[in-house]
Amino acid sequence: MVKITQVTAFIAASALSVAAVDVCFYSNTLGCSGTAGCCNNLAVNLCCGPAASGLGFSIKYIGLPDITTGQAWSGDRCSPASTGIRTFQNGPGDRCWTGGGLRAASGAWTFGTGGRVANSSNTTSTECQGFNAFKYSDAQGIEQTIQIGGGGPSFEELQALYVAGNLSALDALKDN
Question: 143: Cβ–Cβ under 8 A, 6 or more apart, which residues?
Fold first, then answer.
């Protein structure tokens, strides 16, 4: 009986250790809408940031595993602890945090659901993942995704196309 419990706990822990979550910083405070910069496939306890100055008014955590929490900071490297925002976005599933006027500059996810803001006092820029995806709503209001990197346009270039209203250029680059 004890061995079955130990094996089950080991399998659950192993599955969580390979889990990844998409963390997206949105420009709008209304329900994770508008344009967004995302850290797709973000590993546990890895910081996503810094967010561009026009983003972070809401954050969507996509694919949170069970017994995990999405977290955010107003500081740009998931630190210091004093800038932690208690988002209380517990898994499993997709969760949207709306800041109510607060702006998050960085975010992460971790194990546990206590709403505690985890922090590493030695977080450096090399420990943060930058945006690797851009999200926008097309002319039909459907959210689209464009991968960033690999010699393609940067987040800033994609945002400029959106601001200019050049949805046809964005549509030519979309992934889905």
Answer: 135, 136, 137
The beta strand positions in the chain, using DSSP E, are: 20-26, 36-43, 47-48, 58-64, 68-73, 84-90, 93-98, 106-111, 128-129, 133-137, 143-147
Distance from CA of residue 52 to its chain's centroid? 13
Rounded (5°) CA angle 78-156-87:
30
Calpha distance 162→76 (Å, rounded): 24
Region of residue 70 (phi > 0: left; psi between -120 and 50: alpha; otherwise: beta):
beta
Sign of CA dihedral 46, 32, 117, 83: positive
Q: What is the per-residue DSSP string for 63-79? A: EEPTTEEEEEESSTTS-
| pLDDT tens readout for residues 128-155 | 899 999 999 999 999 999 999 888 899 9
Residue 160 has pLDDT above 90, yes or no: yes
Neighbours of 176 (CB within 10 A): 7
- Kindly report, residue by residue over 1-56, the tens digit of the pLDDT: 545 444 344 444 444 455 899 999 999 998 899 899 999 999 998 999 988 888 99
Please check whether residue 9 is in contact with residue 68, taking contact to mean a CB–CB distance below 8 angstroms.
Answer: no
| Rounded alpha-carbon distances, angstroms, from residue 4 to 1, 18, 28, 30, 72 | 5, 22, 47, 46, 37
